[in-house]
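Entry:
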Amino acid sequence: MNRALAFDADLLARYDRPGPRYTSYPTAPQFISPGGEALLREQAHSSNQGTAPRPLSLYLHIPFCQSPCFYCGCNRIITRDPDKGSVYLQRLQREIALAAPLFDHRRGVVQLHLGGGTPNFFRPAQIEALITTLRSHFNLSNDRGRDFSIELDPRFIAAGDIEHLARIGFNRASFGVQDFAPEVQGAINRVQSIEQTLSAISDCRKHRFRSVNVDLIYGLPRQTLRGFTDTLNTLITVRPDRFAVYGYAHMPHLFKAQRQMDGNDLPDGTAKLRLLQLAIERLEAAGYGYIGMDHFAVPEDELSRAQESGKLHRNFMGYTTHADCDLLGLGVSAISHVGHSFTQNYRDSRDWEAAIDAGGIPVWRGLALSPDDEIRADVIQQLMCLGRVHIAAVEQRHGIDFLSYFGDALQRLLPLVSDGLVTIVGSIISVTPRGRLLVRAVAMCFDRYLHATGQPSEQPRFSKVV
């Protein structure tokens, strides 16, 4: 694909409106159907059929954090009480035992991710016990190509922790940094030293983790070009394999912790775009390629190679190389994509606990995918991952006439074509270098649920696209 990226501040400002991140289509607000446990059971059974059923990807949500980061919109529980974590861990192990029998043991687990919250709220010995439980119920891959990843907070890593995680089988790590500038860290209630962070990355290299990712955020309170430059330069010197550079979404009506920050300290729209431009320029100069949706990777990284080969995939864990997997989410609020369905566990920890204590799989809601959902998901996936859609291939896969089926969507796409975000040449729709940073806006043209409301750009539950 064409990996060129063009930064047009005026265009970005004009299209900077709320829209989904498309870690799924349909998006999570559409998972409204009751009876989610029955749906998961039905789809798991169906997906087990055949001589070679799809492999599995497991996501485990660890919601605990010792202190709140004010910018965060994740499902989390703030506590310093380790006993609360231990009780959660016991229930999570019970959920594993309840869910595992739904899946044929032939289905190897080739991808595992512990997200949060702060997964290293648990000590490595507790994480090892969790992995032991998983191994006793699922067919966890021992292949060198497996992806076993964990999100880590460098502030709570002790000597020997990374080595212990490597012995358990983890080979990928992701570290939240956001910004090293002291004034920013104070404003967001996340004081984290450069030394803590670089030491953790060094330990991952020492113990042969295959990949290290670093998360940054632009648009935070008191953030400046000078401070963000220093943060980028410091991290580039240790060359993480991947960077995720997210735009801060200020939505205090949804996330109470964000009310702790002074909105007057946030950079305005122009300043926020300059921070994004800075990140793009520094990372591209350092040899990182833009994967899409905030993600950059070195050329030799598996994400870069998957994008070049047309095998890149996007799901609730972000960009991945495992398009051929069914995804099972475990833990409070976790989302699964099994067969032709999405299901989500209870978001409230008390409801999740009660379901497990009653002996049930703690699924709150779900959505059985219609043929239309799957056709549109195919198109949106291609846009988000590859930046292009082969019209003839979509027609062949789904038995449709593309121009007729997507007539309304193509009309919505015309202004984006006029603005140079998209081209339609022959049977290929392509996102241009000017449009790559606005790919969410392109994908929104094909989202039936957004446009069924009549006001797709005014959804308060979504962050802005830049």
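Confidence is low (pLDDT under 50) at residues 455-459.
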